[in-house]
Design brief:
Order of helices and strands: HEEEEEEEEHEEEE
Shape: globular
Strand content: over 45%
Oligomer: single chain
Mean pLDDT: 89
Radius of gyration: 16 Å
Number of strands: 12
Largest sheet: 6 strands, antiparallel
Low-confidence stretches: 1-10
């Protein structure tokens, strides 16, 4: 069992919340999208091992980073929270009085058979719905991975459901974020 615990920790993701925009050079971006609504603007990136959502309403910006990168490697300027995505978590906060943020995360380590079936099902679902997808093939240095974002763009809120799958340890991490402009703020 100790080997499984060590293997499990290598695939964990961390949620980092910033009260500022982050520079694209900090990440290896596989796919990106911009959303512009009357109440907010958002930049959404699928990055190596995770995703980034920068949400701006008025003069306030909230950036969600879900990534395998160690928190020590990321800047701590503007960092509001750093939360490991282990097990099931729920987090809610308000940023700058104008942005309400809610996220739930769920981490599951599956058997190889169940992982393969789950990966196939998510890849098929993503292709059918034309979702933002990044498939990272295995190399001699790293195992393969699949990341999918299902983005719902509303007039005053952004809903993002993510699936991050890691082949080396059969880890599946799902997140659901709601970032909304507080009306009347």
């Amino acid at each position: 069992m100790p080997n499984r615990t060590k293997q499990r920790r290598s695939g964990g993701l961390t949620l980092l919340l910033y009260q500022k925009a982050l520079h694209p050079e900090l990440f290896k971006i596989h796919a990106s999208e911009q959303v512009s609504r009357r109440a907010y603007e958002a930049d959404i990136w699928l990055v190596q091992g995770g995703h980034v959502i920068m949400f701006t309403a008025g003069k306030n910006t909230l950036t969600e980073v879900i990534a395998t990168r160690d928190a020590q490697q990321m800047t701590d300027r503007g960092l509001l929270q750093s939360i490991p995505c282990r097990g099931e978590k729920y987090h809610e906060m308000t940023c700058g009085g104008t942005i309400r943020y809610m996220i739930s995360t769920q981490e599951e380590q599956l058997t190889q058979t169940l992982y393969d079936a789950t990966r196939h099902e998510i890849a098929t679902y993503a292709a059918k719905r034309e979702l933002m997808t990044a498939e990272i093939p295995a190399t001699p240095e790293s195992a393969g991975a699949l990341s999918v974002l299902d983005i719902e763009r509303r007039s005053h809120e952004l809903l993002v459901q993510s699936f991050h799958l890691f082949d080396d340890n059969q880890m599946v991490i799902k997140t659901q974020s709601i970032i909304e402009v507080i009306k009347g703020a």
